[in-house]
């Protein structure tokens, strides 16, 4: 913006400086009038006009070129009623935003007779307050006041220059304004586009004129701020409407705002809820009052509302102004049964396993489940150990769903996150904590796990520095976000898992001993799959069903030989490997049967003699049985079936020649004949 001296009329500047004010004013006015006429009559050029600002001389020139005569004042045109009505609608938000400030100006300037008017960005007058005595200019809403219609005037120049300006007397083009002073300020929208102007005009020159320009500028800027505020209000309103969460703002113990979702919870209309005392709507007054008082947030806490059996989980965030004044708090509520779903979808973790739906009833698994259920009832930390893929996370989820089903289940794989990010992942950060941090900051996984379970997988891979910090969190139950300055209290159940020998790591100074004892109050050791007998059979069946469903095909049967191979394999990758193998086999299966060749290579290769090329003896099965628990073969895998299968496939390979088939299965020709008959395979056989 230009310096004030340039924005003010020289007449006003002169008034303020001169000792003999009136005389000086009169002389100056006369001189300006003369210069204007000289310029219009082309005796001098705008360039030679030195008593007014160059932009005014230029405007005089344009006004004259528009065919206007400064000595003749024709009533300015009015926009037709229909178009004006339409225009008023379009400019409604400007008119509404400006209304209180126009009224304020009206009051402030009531003693000096002033026009206060609002124009649009084209010079159309939208609103006029306090018309002068006789309104001899006939300035009414709908008047089109521009350089083309009445010549040089303040709001027209303000629009052209995008800047505030003051004109006095003969600086206006028309003689009728010779005694008028007018100050105009532009009003811009939130994107910086010109929306209109605010003008203060008075019939005489006053001492006030030097600050009427300032008043116009300040009021115009206040109107602009009003735009920003209403844009923010709109944004807030859309956010409140869009979210499915109930949101309630509370100040000084009273509900001051509530969204639709909140009104639905309370079965209230918005107007009924707003203004309610918190004591009338919530059970947990001390909690709310503590946030209002201490300004410490409470995240994922349980909140009860009056007259409702429904349980809610919610967060209470204190609200403060830019200068740290207490603005109350914002309460977010969601029904507890939806909490799990939301927290799962927002953090990508699921906790679908329970002790009931996890597969495996082998004696080992049954014992472990009973133990884990007992642990789940207590609050102490649980360490789950076992080879990779044995189902440690499955157990962690089941413990969570047994003990804290309503809270979030947050899993962090300490080995998968880059070392330099683990800290921010776990503890979160405040805005601007480091380069690349999100502008609004972010709660860490520990904070997110409040009210639920934090599952730290691969805890053995946690860097030593962070182990110390984790230990402190477990002791104090408080965290501070990176770049933060306040502690946030946290409440979560910790379950950790590892496939490493943590005590070994402790001995090698790679894991803190104190942390080891703190996280391993309860220990669960999951056996490898190869030692879990009937679990394998049940898991195979479970995975075949699941993958067939996923592929939208009928569930294939598993040939006895393929089953035999799967049972005698030692599963170094445990349940995960078994699941992948079955997924592969289901995809590869043909005619609704999974044969050995449909199994992944690594499993077939480890089978010492390809099973199809030898006889599957009673001994083979006994060996497997002895390495499994007694349930292992409860699923119809009989030796006879295996034998029949082997013979059938040998015959297929030998094109039904018994002699060749006998060689493949390692039986004498006569024994094979007998068995072929016994199993009803003697349809197409040949010598
Ligand atoms: N009892 C079970 N019932 C059904 N599925 C299971 C069971 N145990 C494991 N799984 C499945 O096996 C896979 C591996 O399980 P999980 O991730 O829990 O193993 P883990 O021991 O935590 O592995 P890692 O050590 O690699 O983290 C998962 O897909 C899981 O769903």
From TrEMBL:
Nucleotide-binding among keywords: yes
Residue ranges occupied by any Sigma-54 factor interaction domain in the UniProt entry: 358-587
A Pfam family this chain is assigned to: AAA_lid_14
UniProt keyword list: ATP-binding, Nucleotide-binding, Transcription, Transcription regulation
UniProt keyword Transcription regulation, yes or no: yes
Signal peptide: none
Protein name per its UniProtKB record: Acetoin dehydrogenase operon transcriptional activator AcoR
